[in-house]
Amino acid sequence: MAAGEHVGLFPWLVMLLLPEECYVEFFEKFNFFDGPCLKIAISKGLGFGIILGSVMVKLPQIVKIIMSKSGAGINVMAVTFELTAISFTWAYAVANSFPFSAWGEALFMAVQTSAIATLCFWYKEQTLQAILYVSGYLAVMWVLLSGVTPLSVLSAMQATNIPIVVLSKLIQAQTNYSNGHTGQLSAVTVFLLTLGSLARVFTTIQETGDDMMTLTYIISTAANAVVAFQVLWYWKRTEEFTKRQQSKKD
């Protein structure tokens, strides 16, 4: 069968993810250990796995805030810095036409991260701030994604992601240290973010070859790991804090 003559639903589905030569290697030659194609398959699998996971990665955090009706222990400034880094990566990847599997989680994480900040304002009864936060963020993202922002500007913004990521996690880590507990931070969300950013190091190298994005994810993994360590370190104190908060409401 000549190149380009693969017909049927299965070949079509496979070639949505893998190049045709990899379909040939895997499903015609049955060479499942072809080095280049195996790397592509692993990268695509991880990439879409991260995206699927990102749909729910911050839901435990959102649910925890809603159930407790409190954003105690969550530093909104740190959340905003994190949202900024996510949004810069999203806009930079779109402008460079990187495959969705290399950056798609940024879309879902941006929605959830902005929701967390908004809920923190909401439960402090700062309704106007909550509305302004959401509307301001949507306006900024329209400018970044509409094509009116030059690629050089987006590249410069992406370059700032490393200090932004570090700063966001250091602010949250300082808040945790000052409080002596991690408040309403969700352990599930923190650990999933750490694992997700670690997996992204491999997929970014494989799918984009972009050194700036790769370094950003390496730094992000280390920064997330600091907060993850604090979640474990302050586990018992956080449980005590949660019980005290609950008893006050009861």
Automatic annotation (TrEMBL):
<keyword id="KW-0472">Membrane</keyword>
<feature type="transmembrane region" description="Helical">
    <location>
        <begin position="130"/>
        <end position="148"/>
    </location>
</feature>
<keyword id="KW-0812">Transmembrane</keyword>
<dbReference type="GO" id="GO:0009312">
    <property type="term" value="P:oligosaccharide biosynthetic process"/>
</dbReference>
<dbReference type="InterPro" id="IPR006603">
    <property type="entry name" value="PQ-loop_rpt"/>
</dbReference>
<dbReference type="GO" id="GO:0016020">
    <property type="term" value="C:membrane"/>
</dbReference>
<protein>
    <recommendedName>
        <fullName>Mannose-P-dolichol utilization defect 1 protein homolog</fullName>
    </recommendedName>
</protein>
<keyword id="KW-0813">Transport</keyword>
<dbReference type="Pfam" id="PF04193">
    <property type="entry name" value="PQ-loop"/>
</dbReference>
<feature type="transmembrane region" description="Helical">
    <location>
        <begin position="214"/>
        <end position="235"/>
    </location>
</feature>
<keyword id="KW-0677">Repeat</keyword>
<dbReference type="InterPro" id="IPR016817">
    <property type="entry name" value="MannP-dilichol_defect-1"/>
</dbReference>
<feature type="transmembrane region" description="Helical">
    <location>
        <begin position="72"/>
        <end position="94"/>
    </location>
</feature>
<keyword id="KW-1133">Transmembrane helix</keyword>
<feature type="transmembrane region" description="Helical">
    <location>
        <begin position="100"/>
        <end position="123"/>
    </location>
</feature>
<comment type="similarity">
    <text>Belongs to the MPDU1 (TC 2.A.43.3) family.</text>
</comment>
<feature type="transmembrane region" description="Helical">
    <location>
        <begin position="38"/>
        <end position="60"/>
    </location>
</feature>
